[in-house]
Amino acid sequence: MSTDQFGLAEGGYVPDPDRDITLLLDAFYGHLAAVLREYALPGEPATAMRARQEELEAANRHLIVDEPARHNLRMTLALVAAYEFLRPRLGQETAIAVVRASFTEPLGDAMKEGTRAMLDHAPDAFRAMVELSRSREEHAFGRGFVFARPVDDDHRYHLDVRRCFYHDVLVANAAPELTPVMCAFDANWIEAIEPGRHGFRFDRRTTIGTGGTFCPFHFSRTGEGTG
């Protein structure tokens, strides 16, 4: 898939959680349906999963703290619904692998190409990425996440996620093992960054989902003054 469905390449992207997550979940369920045909599971698995997602949303409504959280809850519980359906049929390891592939792969190329095009055409790729990060923090993540910014200047933007809404939802629904799936989705835009081409690097040495106490999203210019 090469279409820039999120409009990243044009610059000035402002997250629209309703649009973005609906697009993501349609791709997720579509990919799941195609994969599950290979396992010859009876019935309509995607229909059953969507119905379970709605049940989970009703049961977890108390976790919604703002509008971004409402959409992030929907996205996270889609993974839980799929996992609950697949685990007894495929086993835990295969179920996680199928959920991960269905969540990260369908729009992966589109996100990577759109992000790379945005960085390639920006007058200042580092600044463009920082502005995108700030926009997502406000519009896509909201108060369900807690951020710290130990460094924020013209050379470095070091953002630490101290609380992750995705992880909180998954813990509350007895599926913390799915948090790394959410972390893996970021590779779709991380892989678009080329330090030698764009003048900055990205570092994320750990995440809450992989056992860290926080998730460092550190952007640093590679030229003079990065420290």
Task: Describe the fold and architecture.
- By secondary structure, the chain is of the alpha+beta class.
- The chain has one domain.
- It is 57% helix and 11% strand.
- Helix 4 runs parallel beside helix 8.
- The longest helix has 24 residues, at 67-90.
Structural category is: alpha+beta
| Rg over alpha carbons | 18 Å
Which percent range fits the helix content? 55-70%
Overall geometry: globular
Q: Give the strand tally.
A: 4
Mean pLDDT equals: 91
Total tally of structural domains: 1
Order of helices and strands: HHHHHHEEHHHHEE
Tally of contiguous helical segments: 10
Low-confidence stretches: none
As laid out across the biggest beta sheet, the strand order is 1-2-4-3
Distance between the termini: 38 Å
Biggest beta sheet attributes: 4 strands, antiparallel
Beta-strand proportion:
5-15%
